[in-house]
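To: structure desk
From: M.T.
Subject: fold request, one chain
Message: Could you run this one when you get a chance? Sequence is below, nothing fancy, just the single chain.
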Amino acid sequence: MKLNEAVSKRLVELLSNSNMTQYQLSMKSGVPKSTVGNVVNCQYESVKLRIIHELCQGLQINVSEFFDSQLFNEDNLEP
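Reply: Done. Structure tokens follow.
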């Protein structure tokens, strides 16, 4: 899978685990709802680390926790 797809799946997973909507994450992180939606829907070829960091702040996790997933194993990602 592509990296942006892995980011999308991880964000959806974390939202579900937190019982949080995209709108709630937008309000807590300061990231516009349209940007959150674009990340979830893989509208960006790549996602800036700054955006991921802000989303993590809204989810009350650190960046290393975001990437601590099998989704980001090299075997799962396209080169």
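Reply (cont.): The CA atoms of residues 42 and 58 lie 20 Å apart. Let me know if you need anything else for the meeting.
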